[in-house]
Amino acid sequence: MNICVLGAGVVGVTASYWLLEQGYEVTLVDAMEGPGRGASHGNGAQLSYSYVAPLADPSVWTKWPYYLFSSDSPLTIRPSADIAQWKWLISFLRASTAGRAKQTTIDLLQLAFLSKQELSQLLKRTAFDFHHRTAGKLVMYPDAPSLEGARAQVEFQARHGCHQHVLTLQQCLEVEPALRGARRSWAGGVYTENEEVGDCALFCKALVEEMSQHNRFRFLPLTRIGRAITENGRLAKVDTDSGRIETDAFVLSMGAGSAGFARQLGFSLPLYPLKGYSITVPIKKGSEQAAPRISITDLSRKIVHARIGNHIRVAGRVELVGTDEQIPERAIRELATNAADIFPDAADLSDMRALSPWAGFRPATPTGLPIIGPSPVPGLYLNVGHGSLGWTLACGSAALLTEQIAARKPPIEPGPYFL
Asked: How far is CA 99 from CA 57, 89, 96, 104, 105, in A?
């Protein structure tokens, strides 16, 4: 059976690998010059299997004025005439209930744990470097009420397989001494010792190089995907600027572009791009001990810090601004200031041009659950909508999708991820 995967971000690359491992002939197509060049390229680098609670939760209702009008809000909404934006926002608000948030968290945890297991198995079969390590993760809370709220979430997630610890500020400093120099005040944090980090872009590149050793795989970069062609109600062909692709089945993993492809075929995907930013900060020479070993999330600003090699990846913000590709100076300055505040002795910010500023459009559903499985059009499968969790959930999503395509019993209940 021949399968074409549309989109070479981490979700499309991992789907291709799992399908190839199961004996399929796989063609991977992307408009960019290499794999992992879009939303996967500069993400937060954290594989946060226990931190999957959705953006849509009851707190949204009390924070709405802050999101709309505050200049320092980590979530920015720029209302526009785009009907897709308003439809997504209405569905997002409907999903922002305690019951929906809890169920989404449970479903995401199941997929995240599967993903952790699948990545572990993959790494036993392959040998490539993408700065992967089990780093642990600390989420720092600014005050006692927010830390107490975190305690309730930890207790809830413990009933569903998570092993986390609520720590005092002193305990946090013992776990991560690099925080002792921080110019911030916190009440404490939540520590998860088995969380991981890795460079997602390097992972994508290495996995495509690995697959390219097989004669059943081909990668078509710089290939823009165009018209979808159906025959007898089934997706049979896709036109590209490099020629027509005809195959037995297609997998849609085009990130934020997936919704437009689906519209060609007469159905809607509840996706909207959530824009985020990152910088990659060099660690000062001779200051390695002042750099974090553990991934740190500054919750009040929703900015994450992950050490990858001799750099610290600093990422943050959620913006509903359409597909504006500009990287405003204020966004980069905000990330740089946060790195300087938290790791003043380690972050080398002497050359702002060396920080590799990045912006990406993370394709999100209103609930936060990805869509994995058959589409309404025969011949097309979906693997989309992972939002900011694409790196974390990619391997589990690939395994779940592959078993569905093969008509075998999936490793977890697939129903929550159907369109």
From this structure: 9, 18, 9, 9, 10
Whole-angstrom distance, CA of residue 292 vs CA of residue 295: 7
CB atoms within 10 A of CB 170: 9
380 sits in which H/E element: strand 380-384
Neighbours of 126 (CB within 10 A): 10
Alpha helix (H) ranges present in 80-215?
83-95, 98-125, 144-158, 169-175, 200-211
Class of 53-81+132-196+272-364 per CATH?
Answer: alpha beta
What does each C-alpha distance from 166 to 190, 249, 344, 415 come to in angstroms?
5, 47, 25, 33
Rounded to 10 degrees, the C-alpha dihedral 27/29/34/37 comes to -130
Any idea what DSSP says for residue 183? S
Write the pLDDT tens digit of every residue in 261-280. Answer: 999 999 999 999 999 999 99
291-349 confidence digits (pLDDT tens):
999 999 999 899 999 999 999 999 999 999 999 899 999 999 999 999 999 999 999 99
**Nearest Cα to Cα of residue 240 among 257, 266, 221, 256:** 221
Query: What element of type H or E holds 22?
Result: none
Q: Which amino acid is at 132?
A: H
Q: Of 365, 362, 366, 379, which Cα lies nearest the Cα of 252?
A: 379
- C-alpha 46/C-alpha 37 separation (Å) is 17
The residue ranges of every structural domain in the chain are 53-81+132-196+272-364
| C-alpha–C-alpha distance, residues 35 and 9, integer Å | 6
The C-alpha atoms of residue 288 and residue 284 are separated, in whole angstroms, by: 7
DSSP 70: -
Reference 21, options 202, 213, 206; nearest CA is 213
Q: What secondary structure letter does DSSP report for 279? A: E
Q: List, as own/partner pairs, every contact residues 246-250 make where C-beta atoms lie below 8 angstroms and the sequence separation is at least 24, other chains included.
A: 247/2, 247/3, 247/4, 247/27, 248/1, 248/2, 248/3, 248/379, 249/1, 249/2, 249/3, 249/4, 249/379, 249/380, 249/381, 249/405, 250/3, 250/4, 250/5, 250/6, 250/379, 250/380, 250/381
User: 389-412 burial, b if ≥16 CB within 10 A, otherwise e?
Assistant: bbbbbbbbbbbbbbbbbeeeebbb
Q: What is the pTM of this model?
A: 0.97
How many whole angstroms from its chain centre is CA 299?
Answer: 17
Angstrom distance (rounded) from CA 20 to CA 342: 43
